[in-house]
Amino acid sequence: MAHRGWKRDGFTPAKKAKAIEALGTCGNVTDAARVAGVSDTTFYRHLRKDSDFARLCDLARAKAAQPLETLAWQRATEGAPETVIRGGEVVQIKVKPSDAMMRLLLQASNPKKYGRLSRGGASRRQIEKALRKRIEAEVRVEVEEKMRGPRRDVRTVFEQITARLEQIEAEQAAEAEAARRAAEGEGPAAA
After folding, report:
1. What is the pTM for the complete model shown?
2. Among candidate residues 69, 136, 129, the one with its CA nearest the CA of residue 101
3. pLDDT in tens for each of the 191 residues of the chain?
4. Of 37, 27, 103, which is closest to residue 58 (Cα–Cα)?
């Protein structure tokens, strides 16, 4: 007789039905798995391997998302009540539509036209990482240039080195002359 997966991990068809019902209510896999009495790892494994179960879970998630989407649409178009308090008393209750909620709904409905949500595009951390690399490269070039000093051509450097060598030779010649005079007894006063 063929072995059925549910006997091995305890995720029976009855538990699957219970999990799908809970997923349709809460929209959260961890909570749905807890209600069904299985681990979320088992839930995800069956989600990957059982296409019928995956299809039913997608429908349950869509069912759980409908009230949230309706509420988001209402907040974006009609607005949410906002209480204005002055001097400890309620002065006014304004109903203010949410521009941010409208932007999110537009981005979700047409990402090509209104831009992507963070799931489809780069996350803030990815953008910061890329910018950091570019900024570090630019700063590194600036620091290296400052450490090297102003750029000089080869001729100028050669002339500076030659002048310094001539200065050292003149100092050595003067020291040798002073040593010779001291040896002959002339001394600095005799000269």
Report:
1. 0.46
2. 69
3. 444 545 566 888 999 999 999 999 988 899 999 999 999 899 999 999 999 999 999 999 989 888 888 888 888 888 888 888 899 898 998 888 888 888 888 877 777 777 765 555 566 777 778 778 888 888 888 888 777 766 667 888 889 899 999 999 999 999 999 989 988 876 555 44
4. 27
Which of 63, 65, 43 is CA-nearest to residue 54?
A: 43
φ and ψ of 96, to 5 deg = -120, 120
Q: Which whole-number Å values give the CA distances from 38 to 33, 56, 101, in the listed order? A: 5, 17, 36
Spatial contact of 60 and 53, defined as CB atoms under 8 Å apart: no
Angle separating helix axes 29-36 and 13-26, nearest 10 degrees: 140
